[in-house]
Design a protein that fits this description.
Layout lengths: L2 H23 L4 E5 L19 H6 L8 E5 L5 E5 L21 E5 L2 H6 L7 E4 L3 H6 L3 E2 L2 H11 L4 H26 L4 H12 L11 E4 L20 E10 L2 E10 L5 H20 L6 H18 L7 H6 L54 E4 L2 E3 L2 H4 L13 H7 L4 E3 L2 E5 L4 E3 L10
Parallel strand pairs: 1-5, 3-4, 5-6
Antiparallel strand pairs: 1-2, 2-3, 7-8, 8-9, 10-13, 11-12, 13-14
Helix pairs in contact: 1-5, 1-6, 6-7, 8-9
Length: about 450
């Protein structure tokens, strides 16, 4: 058995254990998860790129829609594989993938036959988007409590899942290195994007999310989607782009300043590299992620004061909200099958909400850090006119160096993002071995 197959079997063994517990806790005896149906755009005949139901992908990496996974306590997982005969679209044979031995597999040629093959399943739940068929089969549709239990367990990653994320990191790192070179050679956003996907060996729909490739002021738009072809020789590149392997994502952001960039902004990029690494070093089990986010604000406020942008120390800046317009988003999020993985604001397995504190409303995870979690650490520092505007006229306006802020605003923003695996005693950075210091 290959190393990957061994890791996968251990992953499935844990899935069976945690799912059996979730079923027992929610009074179900069986669970059916479909890979899902394709989404067709309204009033159109074109389909969106297919994404499987995340809970299906947590169990099985087989591609394509309409597969069914049947999970019953005390029995091997059963995979009903939808394998139609088709000449419009390629239907690849299953072959002998590393994961196949973990399932009892049967193949059917139609969606109807797949659902007929389920048979009678008393006290069974269903997760997926084929709810009309599931309802006709008498299954409980996407039960909230059961889903919460399964979401909770997804935040602890098995060695198989970590291996997938690390494989994705290798691919993404190739793209980031090539993108940096294209930027320093004067490339446009569109050219940098093309360089990234070529180096990574991907096409756009294979990426886990649309890349963010922002030159200059566009780096201050947190989810910038444009790819300008007419802007070259940028002062700053902010690129947020990843890759995925067996649906598991790497999510990496880097910022690089060109030699002709404003010298203070160059110093800020170098300072944010230090801030990000310092925050990574603080990660350990038992630390509340909100406390780590709080430390991020203190370190960024200290950097802003050191560079002459703020005239207040870190504690005063945080108390008066002066760092928030520069760092308006959360420090990071859980990472896995979904880029923004589930249960970050979940307080317990039963789905009890754990909302973010009022002073940090955009924080995506409020969980206590535990061994086995994988999440991002991605502090940012941006010059966003709409967020800074209220401070130009309020009681704190004298604590800002507005002349320097105006000089730096055309440079946009800075974000540096790594993916961390929490260990028993600290953390292991999954990104830096493949993509070290980038500035």
């Amino acid at each position: 058995m290959s190393e990957l197959a061994t890791l996968f079997q251990a992953h499935i063994d844990e899935r069976q254990r945690s799912t059996a517990q979730a079923l027992a806790d929610t009074a179900f005896e069986a669970l059916v998860i479909s890979s899902g149906k394709v989404y067709t755009h309204f009033a159109d005949d074109q389909d969106a790129p297919f994404h499987p139901t995340p809970h299906f992908a947590h169990w099985c990496p087989v591609a394509g829609p309409h597969h069914l996974l049947v999970l019953c306590q005390g029995r091997r997982p059963r995979l009903i594989r939808f394998a139609p005969e088709d000449f419009w679209y390629e239907q690849a044979p299953l072959g002998n993938p590393f994961w196949a031995s973990a399932f009892d597999i049967e193949e059917v040629g139609s969606v109807e036959d797949a659902w007929k093959a389920l048979g009678a399943l008393p006290r069974a739940a269903y997760i997926g988007n084929e709810t009309d068929r599931a309802e006709a089969a008498g299954l409980a549709l996407n039960p909230t409590l059961l889903t919460a239990h399964l979401d909770w367990h997804r935040t602890t990653k098995s060695p198989y899942e970590v291996a997938c994320i690390e494989e994705a990191t290798v691919i993404a790192a190739r793209g980031h290195q090539a993108a940096r070179e294209a930027f320093l050679a004067g490339g446009s956003e569109l050219e940098i994007h093309y360089t990234y996907i070529q180096a990574a060996g991907l096409v756009d729909h294979e990426m886990p999310y649309g890349s963010i490739v922002g030159l200059n002021e566009k780096g201050a738009i947190l989810h910038y989607e444009g790819k300008r072809a007419d802007v070259r020789n940028g002062q700053v590149l902010l690129i947020d782009a990843g890759a995925q392997v067996r649906r598991y994502a790497a999510d990496i952001t880097r910022t690089v300043a060109a030699p002709h960039c404003h010298p203070t902004f160059q110093s800020l990029v170098q300072g944010m590299e230090r801030v990000e690494l310092a925050l990574c070093d603080q990660v350990k089990p038992g630390l509340a992620y909100g406390d780590l986010h709080h430390q991020g604000h203190l370190l960024i406020a200290d950097l802003l004061q050191a560079q002459g942008i703020l005239k207040a120390g870190p504690e005063e800046a945080l108390e008066k909200g002066l760092s928030r317009p520069f760092f308006p988003h959360g420090l990071g999020h859980h990472l896995g099958i979904q880029v923004h993985d589930v249960a970050g604001r979940q307080g317990s397995p039963d789905g009890t909400p754990a909302p973010p504190p009022p002073q940090h409303p955009t924080l995506r995870t409020t969980r206590t850090i535990e061994a086995g979690q994988v999440f991002t650490v991605e502090p940012g520092l941006y010059f966003i006119p709409m967020l800074l505007r209220p401070f130009r006229e309020n009681e704190h306006k004298g604590l800002f160096n507005w002349q320097l802020i105006d000089e730096l605003t055309p440079c946009g923003g800075i974000r540096i993002e790594d993916n961390l695996l929490v260990t028993a005693t600290g953390q292991r950075n999954l990104t830096r071995p493949q993509l070290p210091m980038y500035t």
